[in-house]
Amino acid sequence: MNTRKEYRKKCERLQIVHNLNAPTKLTKSIKIRIMLGLSIFCWLAFFIGLVIFTFS
Fold first, then answer.
1. pLDDT in single tens digits along all 56 residues of the chain
2. Do the beta carbons of residue 18 and residue 31 sit within 8 Å?
3. How far apart are CA 21 and CA 28, in angstroms?
4. Where are the domains positioned within the chain?
5. pTM for the whole thing?
């Protein structure tokens, strides 16, 4: 079973690996920008899908 706790643990492990590999501030800011961009893109896609679903 792939529960949320297991998924969170995997994410935490990945973050730890990332921090060990690239502890510089530059890569952290780039990573944050990428995460923000992805979340905004996901929200936009969700919103557009909702609008299409309600008006179709």
1. 567 777 777 767 766 666 665 556 667 777 888 888 888 898 999 999 999 988 87
2. yes
3. 11
4. 26-56
5. 0.39
